[in-house]
Structure formats: C-alpha cells, structure tokens
UniProtKB/TrEMBL annotation:
One Pfam family from the record: SusG_C
Protein's UniProt name: oligo-1,6-glucosidase
Family: Belongs to the glycosyl hydrolase 13 family.
Top-rank EC class of the record's enzyme: hydrolase
Record organism: Paenibacillus monticola
SMART domains to which the protein is assigned, alphabetical: Aamy (SM00642)
Glycosyl hydrolase family 13 catalytic domain boundaries: 13-423
Taxonomic path: Bacteria, Bacillati, Bacillota, Bacilli, Bacillales
C-alpha cells in the first residue's frame, strides 16, 4: 500500500459560522478562526476542512454559493482568507476547502443568466424541463429538503431541478462548458495553495438520461418519491471524476474526499481505487443510517453495537486492498457523536474517549468535528423557532404543518437527529455566549457551555482534549495505526467491539465497551500476550484485562 500524507493525516472540520466570531455580529468568521490557530496546533491536527466560506445568500449556510471565487461578507475577505492559509501553513497545518459543485445558489450569475431566457448561452448550465400536461411536474422526485425537486420559473415557463432547496439549482454536468468553468474555478483555489478538497454530494452530479420518475407503485397520483436511484452514483459520475482528476487534481499534491450518500463498498472502491485516478476517499453513510427506520432519517429507531460494528467491519474489510476509508462519527449534518453513540450523561467523558479510540484505531483517515474534542453534546431547544436549519424547518412544515403529524414526536426527532445539534456555537469558555461572540449568536448556544468548554478542558489533564492530543501524537509515532491490517475479534459480542491491527512485527489489540455495564472479555489467548498498554480511557488505574469497565477503551501492544 502506497504511503501518502492523506492516509497519515488527522483532519479537523470547522463550520465557520459557529466557530469564533471576531467582530460581534454573532456569526463566526475567518479572523475568528485565525485567532484559534494556536489551539488547533496544540491539538495536533494535520489538516483543517473548512465548510464553505464562499459568497452565499445562506439559504443553506454557505452550501448555496453565489460566487465561487470570493468570500462571504459575514466571514471576511479574500485577504483574510489568505492570512488564514498562511497562518495554517506556518503551523504545519494544511487547508482543505469545501467544493460544492453539484449545485450553485440561484443567485449565482450563471443561474441569473440561465433563467433569463431559453436561448441564453448559460441556459444549459442547469437542468431545465417543461412541465407535463395539466401542469404536472417533470417527474416525481422529491427534494432532499422536502417538497418537489422542481421549481417552476415564471419567466420561461419551465422547471429547474433542485435536489436540495429551491435556492440550490443543480448544475448540468452533461455540459462540457460547465465542467470547464468548474475546473477553472478549482484551479483558481489550488493555485492559491489549497491543500485539499472535500466534495459535497459529489456522487449526485450525473443523472440518469431522461430523468425517469421513481417507482410509484402504492403512491397516490401526484405523490412524490425519492428518486435517488436515478441520481446517486449515476451513469457518468466516474467519467466526470476521472476527467476532473486528469485535468486539474492530479497536477497538485492534494487530498480529496467525496461526500457520497448511498454509496456501497463497491461504489467506494470505484471512487477511491488509486489506479482509477478519481478521488482518494469518500464519506460513506451506512453507519449514519443505523438509527433510521423505514421512514428514513426522522424515523428514529434504536441501534445496536452489532449493527454498527457489522457496518464498520464491512467497510474495513471492503477497502482493505483497494481504496481508503474516511473515519467519522459526526459532522455539521449529524447529531453529536457522544449523544448518539456514547452516553452524554454520567459517562460523557469516558464514552467520548472510547469513541475517539475507535476513530483513531480503525484503518482510515480520522475526521474530528469541531467541539468533538471537548465532548460537546446534542441540544434540546424547546421551540421550533430556536432552530435555524432549513432541513429541519422544511421537514417540520411537511410533516406537521401540512401533514398533521404530532408536534411532540417531530420535535423529539429534531432533538435526536437535527443538524443544529452540531451547529450550536463552539464552547470556548464559561463567559457569556461561551466566548463565541460579544453579540447576539446566530444560533442559540447549548446551555451546558458553563461546564463543557475549551477552558475547562485545557485546565484538566484528564480531559477529552488531551486524550485526542495523545491519540493524534500516537499516530505520528506508530505507522501501525495508519497502515496496520485490521482483523475482527469477538464478532458476536453484544457490547464489545474488539479487533487487532498488525504491521510487520507490531500487533495491537483494541477493546471497546459500548455499554454502561462491565463486560467480560473472552480472549484468553490474546490477553496472555499483553506486552503493554498503549492507551486507555481510564488512565493509569490498574486494569483487569479480562473485564472492561463501563465504556472502557483500551489498546494493548501484544507480544508476537
Ligand atoms: C451536504 C452538506 O454537507 C450539507 O450541509 C448540505 O446541506 C447539502 N450537502 C447540500 O449542499
């Protein structure tokens, strides 16, 4: 397996709107991030992935871009961005930008041209279709943010496709001129010294010819259906990614990760096999669906370690020879990992460290989401108005306001699954607004900031922060964490995830207890070979190897 910087790296994701405000407008910004670079250096991360900072009307917090080559007013200027990049590079940190090229904002100059007339040269940059007879939609696809995926534009009497909000029209990748324009824009950033790209829903850029309606058996006339099978991992996606790789990406020494909802292991191999020259890794979503019922994301369902482990194991084995895994348990679209997969009450600190051990000892590149390193938790705002996320509001309108679903049930689902769980401002200290802003924060803070904050974490040698710092440092000293072969143990255990990593003469045993009760470890052969403890979340307290305490994580080096 080739050794590369992006396999060895630990990535830290910043959602700029919620990280640090520097000018009192209640919105995080680039100068705010600049003021926190020493903190990131102290943590030891190699790469920062910055969620979008480009000009945007913020219908979807920057994932709707109106100018790809300039910075959003609220976040600062191109100059600030250049200073941020320089500040990162001075500290040995690389910068990964977010590339949102499945769609743009409806306020992008291309779309303004495109919608202006049917024969405008930019018309074909987007996906326009006439309606059906009697004013029906071009097809029955629903938008991922609720409602139809089509919007009628009065000026020309045609509909445009938007897989996300109506302010996020899909770009037409079939058009070679559009692709050229995007490659030129990407080159603009890479020439400025950007070190990596995270590509938003990149597996949705190729739609099946004819945009067929999704299967409608059992649906009432006019009822919408998902349609994902016609736009996820579509017919020309590999051709486009290979082209982008050859024309742009391969000319730079950069890191790439594609966001690919619905991708299978086979799809992921096709995207990330180095010989195919497309991407380096993808964010797969299977483990993010482990607590979703048949009704989808908002149909909250209990999950079990058996299910979670089966998924993670499948991906470990599936990408062992070809391709590469990204390792994440949360990001700006997902609930907080300690609330979802650990225990955010009595065992918050211990379980956050256990999950961190998992992320850093599986094979792949770990991604830390801001605040994870101090164990930030989900939030339960009592009022819908406290939420800002478009996905949440659209879903509520569809299900409760229009659909008659029970308010309390849906609010509960928002508490468990809503994206604003991850977006509450970063908790720096116990002062007003957690040191995030002097103004009125754009989204309410999690009230637990008086206890859970960076100041507290830095003052406590046993904090989650220092545990992450140690894991990251261990990765630098131990290539086994990056390149070691993964092998599952105790495949049937209800509560323990156990595996080994092996690299040449080195062998590690990882034991993780996913429950709040002690669990016995039936591994006498392996346990008889313990040479030393590499890291454990109960610190240096004496251990009884054949038993794991609640949420205990322990990594042993074994004699071979
Ligand atoms: C995925 C992004 O991560 C999410 O935040 C965004 O809403 C959609 N793509 C649309 O860009």
């Amino acid at each position: 397996m080739n050794k590369t910087f992006w396999k060895e790296a630990v990535v830290y994701q910043i959602y700029p709107r919620s990280y640090q405000d520097s000018n009192g407008d209640g919105i995080g910004d680039l100068r705010g991030i600049i003021s926190r670079l020493d903190y990131l250096q102290k943590l030891g991360v190699d790469v920062v992935w910055l969620s979008p900072v480009y000009k945007s009307p913020n219908d979807d917090n920057g994932y709707d871009i109106s100018d790809y080559e300039d910075i959003m007013d609220e976040f600062g200027t191109l100059r600030d961005w250049e200073e941020l990049l320089a500040g990162m590079h001075e500290r040995g940190i690389k910068l990964m930008m977010d590339l949102v090229i499945n769609h743009s904002s409806d306020e992008h100059a291309w779309f303004l041209e495109s919608r202006s007339s049917k024969d405008n040269p930019y018309r074909d940059y987007y996906i326009w279709r006439p309606g059906g007879p009697e004013g029906t939609l071009p097809n029955n696809w629903s938008s991922i943010f609720s409602g139809p995926a089509w919007e009628l534009d009065e000026a020309t009497g045609e509909y445009y496709l938007h897989l996300f909000s109506r302010k996020q029209p899909d770009l037409n990748w079939e058009n070679p001129e559009l692709r050229e324009a995007l490659y030129k824009m990407i080159t603009f950033w890479l020439d400025k010294g950007v070190d990596g790209l995270r590509m938003d829903v990149i597996n949705m850029i190729s739609k099946v010819d004819g945009l067929p309606s999704a299967h409608s058996e059992g649906l009432a006339p006019g009822e919408l259906a998902g349609g994902g099978e016609y736009y996820m991992n579509g017919p020309r996606v590999h051709e486009y990614l290979h082209e982008m790789n050859q024309q742009v990406l391969s000319k730079y020494n950069i890191m790439t990760v594609g966001e690919t909802p619905g991708a299978t292991v086979e799809d992921a191999i096709a995207y990330t096999d180095e010989d195919r020259e497309e991407l380096q890794m993808v964010f797969q979503f299977e483990h993010m669906d482990v607590d979703s019922g048949p009704g989808g994301k908002w149909d909250v369902t209990p999950w079990s370690l058996t299910q979670l482990r089966d998924i993670l194991h499948k991906w470990q084995i599936g990408l062992a020879e070809k391709g590469w895994n990204s390792l994440y348990l949360n990001n700006h679209d997902q609930p907080r990992m300690v609330s979802r997969f650990g225990n955010d009450g009595q065992y918050r600190v211990i379980s956050a460290k256990m999950l961190a051990t998992l992320l850093h000892t599986l094979k792949g590149t770990p991604y830390i989401y801001q605040g994870e390193e101090i164990g930030m938790t989900n939030v339960k705002f009592p009022l819908l108005e406290d939420y800002q996320d478009i996905e949440t509001h659209n879903m509520y309108r569809e299900k409760v306001t229009d659909g008659g679903a029970d308010h309390a049930t849906i609010l509960n689902a928002i508490h468990i699954k809503g994206r604003d769980n991850a977006r509450t401002p970063m908790q720096w200290d116990a002062s007003t607004n957690a040191g995030f802003t002097n103004g009125m924060p754009w989204l309410r803070l999690n009230p637990n900031y008086s206890d859970i904050n960076v100041d507290q974490a830095l003052a406590d040698p046993d904090s989650i922060f220092y545990y992450y710092q140690k894991l990251i440092a261990l990765r630098k000293q131990n290539p086994i964490m990056v390149y070691g072969e993964y092998e599952l143990l105790l495949p049937e255990h209800e509560y323990i995830y156990a595996y080994t990593r092996t690299l040449e003469a080195d062998k590690w045993l990882v034991l993780l207890n996913f429950s709040e009760t002690p669990q016995s470890v039936d591994l006498s052969f392996e346990l008889s070979k313990i040479a030393e403890i590499v890291i454990g979340n109960y610190g240096d307290q004496p251990v009884e190897p054949a038993s794991l305490r609640p949420y205990e994580a322990i990594v042993y080096r074994l004699n071979r």
